[in-house]
Design a protein that fits this description.
The chain has 124 residues and is an all-beta fold. The protein has no helices and eleven strands. It has strands at 3-7, 10-13, 18-25, 32-39, 46-51, 58-60, 68-73, 78-83, 92-101, 112-113, 118-123.
Length: 124
């Protein structure tokens, strides 16, 4: 049974930083690409950043490029999202998704979502 726990969200002001964490159990974490996604009411879940199984390759949505950084620690079955220079339009529920073996893929449908997400709210 796969268990995913996202944490680290909160209420912050524009320009602040947060670090999200995603701990995965019940899966061979190190074999799978992983991704951070977000969803706001009335909108589809969108890719924020993704990282390959080994951690050597990553990609970012244009809206967060240069402000967010994705990382993973396969020894701890944990993925992170460092979010700097937060903006009000970053407000969303953030989810981590488990992808396929090896390289990251850009399609949301390539990922499985098991966790409840963590709320990030950025005020102006």
């Amino acid at each position: 049974q796969v268990v995913v726990l996202e944490s680290g969200g909160g209420l912050v002001s524009a320009g602040d930083s947060l670090r999200l964490s995603c701990v995965v159990s019940g899966s061979t974490f190190r074999l799978y690409a992983m991704g951070w996604f977000r969803r706001t009411p009335g909108k589809e879940r969108e890719l924020v950043a993704a990282i390959s199984a080994g951690g050597g390759e990553s990609t970012y949505a244009d809206a967060v490029e240069g402000r967010f950084m994705i990382a993973r620690d396969n020894a701890k079955n944990t993925m992170y999202l460092q979010m700097d220079s937060l903006r009000p339009d970053d407000t969303a529920v953030y989810y981590c998704g488990i992808g396929d073996y090896g390289p990251w893929t850009p399609e949301v449908t390539d990922y499985a979502f098991w966790g409840q997400g963590t709320q990030v709210t950025v005020t102006s």
